[in-house]
Amino acid sequence: MKILFYRYGSICEPDIIHAFLKMGLTVLEDTTEITNKSISDADRLLAVEKVISEQQPLFVFSINFYPVIADICHIYHTLYLCWTVDSPVPELFSSSIRHKTNRIFLFDQAQYQTFVPYNPDCIYYLPLASCTERFDKVIASISKADLASYACDIAFIGSLYSEKNPLLTLSGLSDHTKGYIQGLVEASLKVYGYNPVEEALTDAVITDIKKNDPNFFTLKKSVTDPDRYVAAHGYIGMEISQAERIRTLNRLALEFSVDLFTLSDTSELKNVRTHSGAQTLTEMPKIFHLSKINLNMTIKPIQTGLPLRIFDIMGCGGFLMTNYQSELQEYFEIGTDLEAYSCTEELVEKCAYYLTHEEERRQIAQNGYEKVCAQHTYPHRIREMIQCITQ
Hints:
Elements: E1 2-6, H1 13-22, E2 26-30, H2 32-35, H3 41-55, E3 59-63, H4 67-75, E4 79-83, E5 102-106, H5 109-115, E6 123-125, H6 132-139, H7 144-150, E7 154-157, H8 175-188, H9 197-200, H10 203-212, H11 227-253, E8 258-261, E9 273-275, H12 284-290, E10 293-296, H13 308-315, E11 320-323, H14 328-331, E12 339-341, H15 344-355, H16 358-375, H17 378-390
Parallel strand pairs: 1-2, 1-3, 3-4, 4-5, 5-6, 7-8, 7-10, 8-9, 10-11, 11-12
Helix pairs in contact: 3-4, 8-10, 8-11, 10-11
């Protein structure tokens, strides 16, 4: 049986394709958007329609949600499967979410609870996964030179969000809006496992943000007004994430050796050893495996769920130190499979402890790796997906 995988270049696409192949499916790929990021909805529609009409795939699949693909699949009575790996995904507010040909899988329970009322029979919760089979091959190739290059005490791989924070580009915000946003940032940085921004936003602040950004997200037809969600998560959520990452790394670097691998502007960091971004397929798994502590800081728009980075680190046999998320304990045991912190002071204390308790740290990393291998790989998730569409 054939399926069409519409690709845009997400790092997890090859691993999902591999899982589909292991299920015995033939995967047709549309890769136009990987090289043409300015592709129009009209061209996207024509490309997908051509494959559907000529190949009649069992279903079309994509990472995140494309309203235009949902529309063309609805017209052709073809199932459209998608799986979010990001948050926010404001395209989910499109009225196209209501099509009965959709099978939408959302990785964050809060994201799921927001959107499931608009199509309760066709929207599912599905956490993310790890590609342990691929990671194992990379880790098996670790050399003595790699030990010198990639072994860190505390490592963080990722963006500082300075280049992903649209608030930095808005010059016309009122002093009231700026102060209000700063208050939300400071309040949010004191709370782990809960995001108060969306409900705390005032209409005036939302209007001011929207007025000052001509690229503010809009939809022709939506199931409800997305402005509050977009302002909270697409703007203020990114501001909070940037502040959290800079402050956390600077705090840790006061007491420990901290290595950052990023393409972001690092000028606000002090005493942090900075490196260019790690190559996803060849370098990142080695850093995760060799570092004593791998730090995860979940961006605020991911409200309850577990980001891909958690599964990546554990799938490489790395020791994970992550901020607390409410879904963590549904899948892992804190202190046995991984470690978590609920404030900066706790993070510092736990880093100090595990840097001096090597055997305990190694055992936790091994436990986490074994649990991910047993329960949280892409084949596990794809089987769940297929079961949903064959019931």
